[in-house]
Specification:
Blueprint lengths: L2 H21 L8 H23 L4 H20 L9 H7 L1
Helix pairs in contact: 1-2, 1-3, 2-3
């Protein structure tokens, strides 16, 4: 793993973060900075995983894996925190 490969993953991560933000359905209430950080994280993890499993030189597969990892990170952070449960008393009022 060379320094050039790591820099390439970081730059690619910026693009991947934006694309992953578009892939996740619904409204994400995270800033652009956090989106880019998740893209960089996904690019680095995707690059390391595919380099270990397949060896270097699989650019398209690395891109797809990085995109999936980034989208999973974004969706994990932006999922709904908790839903209010409707109590029995509230249900009776609704009827």
């Amino acid at each position: 793993m060379t320094l050039l490969a790591i820099v390439a993953w970081l730059v690619t991560g910026l693009v991947i973060g934006g694309l992953a933000h578009l892939l996740v359905p619904g409204r994400q209430r995270i800033g652009i900075l956090r989106t880019l950080v998740f893209g960089i994280l996904g690019a680095v993890v995707g690059g390391i995983v595919t380099a270990l499993l397949l060896g270097p030189g699989h650019v398209l597969i690395t891109f797809v894996v990085a995109l999936i990892v980034s989208a999973l990170l974004i969706s994990a952070v932006t999922r709904p925190r908790s839903r209010r449960s409707v109590s029995a008393r509230s249900r009776r009022r609704l009827r």
